[in-house]
Structures are given as structure tokens and as C-alpha cells.
Amino acid sequence: MSLTNVFNIAGTGMNAQSVRLNTTASNIANAETVSSSVEETYKARKPWFSVLEKQWGNVNDLNDKLEIRSQVGDGVQVKGIVESDAPLKKRYQPHHPMADEEGYVMYPNVNVVEEMTDMMSSSRSYQMNVEMMKTAKQMLQRTLTLGQ
User: Fold this and answer.
1) Does the pLDDT of residue 56 top 80, yes or no?
2) Are residues 104 and 116 in the same domain?
3) Is there a single domain that holds both residue 24 and residue 59?
4) Based on the domain organization, do 51 and 99 belong to the same domain?
5) Which 8-state DSSP code applies to residue 9?
6) What is the four-CA torsion angle of 111, 114, 116, 118, rounded to 10 degrees?
7) Which of 10, 39, 58, 109 is deepest in the core (most CB within 10 A)?
8) How confident is the model at residue 52 (pLDDT cuts 50, 70, 90)?
9) Where are the alpha helices (DSSP H) in 1-111?
């Protein structure tokens, strides 16, 4: 792996954490939205990530295969956003305008404490990827000054 690959890997990590932060913000913003039916109620969303693998083509030599297996992926890819299947919160509020015939109001399955923890984690991961890019840039600049 060359030093320039660090920029691509850190860039995909920053993109993934940005998506994660946006979904967390959406979950927190909709944590107290109400509905009168299960179908209309907001459901918490989480991003789904996977590791980007190198495209190697047809590899025949055993040594090449062993080397490929020992290498790290090429970053992170956002595969999609999935809705949580946790049960929705049902509260008895008969005087609420959105209450159903039985007097219940449906609230999203968003756990604000969990979302805040997720927000801090994604923010820290984003910062670490930025620091990794800065360090790689400094290393490349120092490499260029070696010949002087």
C-alpha cells in the first residue's frame, strides 16, 4: 500500500462518518414526532457500511493469493440506510390531537442517549481521519525535502 492510498482510505472514512452523523441528526430531530398509526411513525435509521475490497482480477500464483489475503481493504463504502426494527413507543394520551381511537399516540423508536453517543463517536472518527490525512501530507512533504 502506498502512502497516497491513505488519502483515499481516509476520504472514504470521512464520507462514511458524515453519513452516520447526518442519520444521527435526523434521528434526534425526529425523536419526538408523533403519529396515530404505526405505518406513519418515524423509525430510527442507521447507516450500513462495508469494507471496499481491492479488485484483483484473476490471481493464479499461490504467493500472490496469500499476499492479497493479508492486505487491508481500500476504505469504507456506505451500502445504504436501514430502518430500525425496534418496537415503537406507544403512549396513552387521549387528549392529544394525534391520538387514535383508543387514545394512544405512537412515538419513534429513537433512543436519544444512544444517538448522542453515536454522534460523539462519529465526530471523533471523522476527526481521526482528518488527522490521518494531515500526517500523511506532512510525511509526503518531508519525503520531497529529502533530496535537497
Assistant:
1) no
2) no
3) yes
4) no
5) H
6) -130
7) 10
8) confident
9) 5-29, 62-70
